[in-house]
Amino acid sequence: MSSTFGSGIFNMQSVPQAAVAAYQAGSQAAGDQDFSRAIRYYSDALAFDGTDAVFRARTHEYRGQCYWLLGDFDKAEADYVAALKTSDDLNQIARARVRLGELADFRGEYETAVSLYGQALEEGIQTSNLLVIGRARRGLGIIHRKQGDTDKAVTQLLQALATFREAGEAREQARVLTSLGRTRHARGEYQHALSNHDEALTILESLNDRWRIVQVLNDIGECHQALYDIETARTYHEKALELADQYEAHLIKPEILRNLGVDLVEQGDFNWGMAYLQEALESARSFNNREQEALSLYNLARAHLLIGNMVEAGEAVGALQIVAEALNADRFRALGLFVQGELFYQQGQQPEAVAALNAAALAAQTAVDRGVLWKLHATMSHVVREDAIASVHRMIAAEFIRQTAEPLKDARLKYGFVHAPPVMAVLQAAGIEPDNL
């Protein structure tokens, strides 16, 4: 009864007209991003007895997505499980399995997410369901990025993008472009990342997809932040926060708040910066968003180290390491070990600092972006006592900076990055003229 394309269209001829009307009203409300109202209409549709199994499964799926966007993950999971079990239609089963994969990913249950996406991909291929195939590949690409394998991530995401372009699914293309932008960011390929995000933003604005517009504005700001274009970054993040409040897009707020905190700390406004970072941490924990919890703790630890709050930095480092182990991802282990090494160094524990930073470098080899890698090696060049080894770390840091700067097409962005004081310090120590990059 489902279409093989899986676009959302399915046969409702045997469904009572009143149930169809409630379902369609729910779809309209969801399209308007009034998710609470959509939930009420979908619940009305589900209240009818004897409706078609695919209709009930699809209604559960869509109501679950509304719960998800409102941050009620237990109810979202219950609806996704119902969507999985209510119908024996393989297309619908595969759709629900992808949704459950997205939920597992959000909770930091990466292995579970990979299993769900992999099974959904097999089912999608079996039924020629392009929507499921594209969503499963996108999901696998996101997990590969989070686990540090950005080559596999790009491969999966490009395949997902090709699938959605074949299908003519604009919204799904924008979602993949956002994921590609984040993956390019993770590789330090900020020019490509900005291009992906700009293309996604154009599509989402044409669809008036307000929540995802907020997400992309945040991501564009984060690219500028990584390049030390802090004023521009802050403009994007302040706009994203304003719209998130206006649209009640609370699920996205932890990362926006975190980025605003980082912007303010970079500008020397430590009081407000720390306040935003603390709010980001509390917000991430309220949603059980382990990834954003880890990133908030990392940035909090670094901010405390900057102003000499050793006790608070130590608490943040310890909490980060607990979350990193729960996530079982080298990316977050590397971040935790990095700030632990910095903490040891500032406490005068040089051997412990070297050990932690070496462990961070080992975990970070494929798991973190160049923006972290050059900072890590720059720090190691100060911590190690052997001049020859320090020189090697300076050259590695300078090479990651070069790989970041050279692809930048925007002359203003490139100039601002290579002349940012932390970058200049590395280049000068390595005997490299910024204008030669």
* SS-derived structural category: mainly alpha
* DSSP strand tally: 0
Question: What is the chain-wise order of helices and strands?
Answer: HHHHHHHHHHHHHHHHHHHHHH
Assigned CATH class of the domain at 1-148: Mainly Alpha
Summarize the structure.
By secondary structure, this protein is mostly helical.
Notable characteristics:
elongated, single chain, 22 helices, mainly alpha, disordered N terminus, Serine Threonine Protein Phosphatase 5, Tetratricopeptide repeat, 437 residues
Task: Give the secondary structure arrangement, pairings included.
Layout lengths: L16 H15 L3 H12 L6 H17 L3 H14 L3 H17 L3 H18 L2 H18 L2 H18 L2 H17 L3 H18 L2 H17 L3 H17 L6 H14 L3 H17 L3 H17 L3 H18 L2 H17 L3 H15 L5 H14 L3 H19 L5 H8 L2 H9 L8
Fold and architecture overview:
This protein is mainly α and 437 residues long. The protein has a domain at 1-148: Tetratricopeptide repeat domain (Serine Threonine Protein Phosphatase 5, Tetratricopeptide repeat). The chain is 79% helix and 0% strand. The protein is built from 22 helices and no strands. It has helices at 17-31, 35-46, 53-69, 73-86, 90-106, 110-127, 130-147, 150-167, 170-186, 190-207, 210-226, 230-246, 253-266, 270-286, 290-306, 310-327, 330-346, 350-364, 370-383, 387-405, 411-418, 421-429. Helix 6 (110-127) runs antiparallel to helix 7 (130-147). The radius of gyration is 23 Å and the shape is elongated. 56% of the residues are buried.
